[in-house]
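We modelled each protein-ligand pair independently. The example shown here corresponds to the flavin mononucleotide entry; the chain sequence is given first, followed by the ligand as SMILES.
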Amino acid sequence: MIHYSEEDIDKLNKVFRINLINSCSGYKSANLIGTKSKSGIANVAVFSSIVHLGSNPPLLGFFLRPSEIFPRNTYTNIKETGIYTINSIYKEIINDAHHTSAKYDKSISEFSMTDINEEYIDDTSPPFVENSPIKIEMKFEEEIKIKANKCKLIVGKIVNLHIEKKLLEKDGFLSLYKGKIPTISGCDGYSLPEIYDRKGYQKTKD
Ligand SMILES: Cc1cc2nc3c(=O)[nH]c(=O)nc-3n(C[C@H](O)[C@H](O)[C@H](O)COP(=O)(O)O)c2cc1C
């Protein structure tokens, strides 16, 4: 095994350290967050930190990197409008999805810089990603500042959930592999997983 102590990590080259620390916790979810500014400019960006926070109420969170250096359009739009969408990435759009991480000015929509199409399910909805197998409309609930690194946990409630039919199993489980939904490792690694097994709810052995 290769060992890195706290001191070793502190001394690492910047890029090596980013890659190492970003991959060591395992595979992450691969989503695009869609928003619209108050002035009507759509925005879409890749996020790998979207996590389940609870099913009742149905909450999802994501971690926003510090916004001091670069303005974060996704965050500004969520704060302005209180709504956003979370759309699963799928195999055919991986290249374009990754490109949405480029730092475009707020006046430029990433939808116009890629082949990802925006879709509006009703007149008031924020932009969804067309053909995404899982499209979730979210309402902003709260933000929690992480003191250790100035990141923010953005908490939202699922208000509308749209799922491609073939993914949904009888018990509510979503077979993500049927939608060719990738997972992300590190900052730029995309993998297409297959399901290994479902193990069911566990009871104690005694
Ligand atoms: C694979 C990948 C995953 C990312 N995940 C996150 C994330 O979870 N949180 C975050 O703040 N930024 C994340 N980013 C960076 C944003 O995509 C990037 O800052 C983007 O420019 C934000 O766009 P916006 O300014 O339009 O909000 C990620 C970038 C990549 C390439």
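The chain has a mean pLDDT of 96.
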